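Sample entry (558 residues):
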Amino acid sequence: MGDYDEDTAFLGQTGPYFWTTFFLLNTVFISTGFNGLYIVFVGAAPKHHCLIPDVNLTEEWKAAVIPVTIVDGEAVQSQCSRYKLDVVRNLSGEGYVPGRDVNLTNLEQEGCLNGWSYSKDIYQSNIVTEWDLVCDNQWKVPFASSTLFVGYLLGSLISGQLSDRFGRKKVVFISLAAQCISVILQSFSHSWRMFCIMFLFVGASQISIYISAFVLGTEVLSKTMRVIFTTLGAFLFYCIGYMTLPWIAYGIREWRTLLAVLATTSVIYIPLWWFIPESPRWLITQGRVEEAEVIVRDAARKNKVEAPTVIFKETEAIPPTKNYTMLDILKSQNIRCITLMCLMLWMAINIGYFGLSLNTSNLSGDPFMNCFLSATAEVPAYVVSTWLLKKCPRRALLSSFLIIGGGVLLLIQFIPDTLQYIALALEMTGKFGFTMAFSIVYIYTAEIYPTVLRNVGMGMCSSAARIGSITAPYIIYLGTYNKVLPYILMGSLTIASSVVNFFLPETLNRDLPETVEQMQECQGLCSGPKKKKYVENGGRDDPNKHHEDKSDVQSLTA
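Predicted structure, serialized as tokens:
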């Protein structure tokens, strides 16, 4: 077949068909926003202490049976131990008064043998209070969080192949149904193990929704609409869902009901099946040209333009090209070096981004407002990054925001406890920096790799990102031992990655490399021997072609 963009140029760049498809597809991303991070509330640990059974104790001993410990300079009740109940009961029966007749520091302690008592000031119930995921079982919460990201990894590996075989539209709606069913089943979990298993399916279905809808949008929309969709639309509508989550959780404090409500919101997407088209590009690759023509003619009718008699023109067959794999990345020292640096970048950015997203429930103040502020910080980041990418060098831009994100995390440890609002502002600034870096690194990486290796390179970087997000819950878990430790680790890793980024080649005002040889000619520490033919114009072969290539790079990142 001929070039799809040329064959469908008569549709124009905007119009009712493109705008309707744009908004309908973007509404799908809202569900990924509020179904992705509800573990922030479902897995939050409320204030708790050992449960004291109904035994005959005086009021003084009831108040003193829980030891007092010093945490961050503040005296708080112990969460994982109590004074031995048999000893306390005997001392109470003999009339001794704690602190006056008995030195409490000399009393023997024991674990919470009868369970825990949880504060219900914020949460009526969640998985922590239901399955006692505290003290020795506290590790189960970050493990549960990481299963979501393991699902992301699995879903990202299989969703592309499924959509290539069965179609983008089918996979989007099947994934929506799978997400709905998984969350509903998760709300009926009878154990922590079942919760984790279902969370894995939630993650796999959710990333499948995101990737398939992203690809569908890049293939259905016009070139102009495609750029808006990939740089702003998908991200901003994800943020709408993310910002909606804390208000839903604020109104529903019981975790099973919360999950059931979040799951049932997927029902509103059922009517979209009749309004969102299948990708004509995919139909053509499957030899279903007549179906593709029906969709394009419907688009022409909605845009009020006349379609030609023959839309898709036949052309000479293109000779098969070599299929590149990960082994080809290992063959070149230049590509190996660049890929290792890209892997570190993606991992560090995802650790920081998801680490701060999951940490909102541990911040001082209202957890619902903190989550909302964290989501809100992403909106200006996406808007600003889209504008800056048009004018600024990628290398300096990415390093700048990595330094901002990592620097404020390192500064937080020096903020006294009395200035919690400053610490919160710094954390939101860090989230802004990581979100900026998150959106920049997608485009930057796609511009670095040549066309023949772009899909492979982006796939490897995406896998590294998933590994980073799987690691993030455990880094936040280290805060139970020292509250500044997660900030030091995330901040140091981010600063180190910003230094590494300076050795990557610059891609601003350069044509997208098509071959491995052109990639090796990029400037940077890992650059290979330069070919005079490509670099005599500094990589600027044709300004018009450059503009056209850059406008398409977003679709390649999917």
